[in-house]
Amino acid sequence: MFALPLETPGDETAKLRPLEPWQADEFLAHMDRGREYVGTYIGLPDVVTDPPSAHSFLRSYADKQAGDSGRIYGIWLADTLVGGVMFRTFDAAMGNCEVGCWLEPSAVGRGLITQAVRLLIDWAVDERGIHRVEWVVSSGNGASIKVARRLGLTREGALRESYPYRGVRHDMEMWSVLAPEWRRLRSDARSG
């Protein structure tokens, strides 16, 4: 199994690696620690509530990976699962994908999501020929919007009150980056 290192402030070790069905108990424990925070804007904690649902969720992504239509990765900080990133959708034939993320409160502010999503976009663009990477976020989720900006994504607009979640209709913003833009951003970062 691969594990890619992520940089952290200080001496902490962080890794990005596949998140698989056999890790359902660890995934559930992680959701239990971050349930309230993670669930502020995304429904993942509402879906992962017990061992069978944790296994089922991870199994759905194993099936997506087998069908080349999605993937999920965990972020471990000092050997504890603290978050994750995913290709929520992945369509190589059309050249489009959507990335998503979540993080429990103990890991916030370390740049882990930005680094992990950067790795996903690099792979999608360089290895799989993806042309358009999307990021869909609630307009109220300032932390996620900051990540989109740090990555250099472009805000394309908002779908007003399009996402009913926990009794509130959220405006959902669409952010994206195209492969030529991503390569240019990466080149500028290296030379700057």
Automatic annotation (TrEMBL):
Coiled coil: none annotated. Gene3D superfamilies: 3.40.630.30. It holds the Pfam family Acetyltransf_3. It comes from the Bacteria. InterPro entries: Acyl_CoA_acyltransferase, GNAT_dom, Ribosomal_N-acetyltransferase. Residues 14-175 form the N-acetyltransferase domain. This is GNAT family N-acetyltransferase.
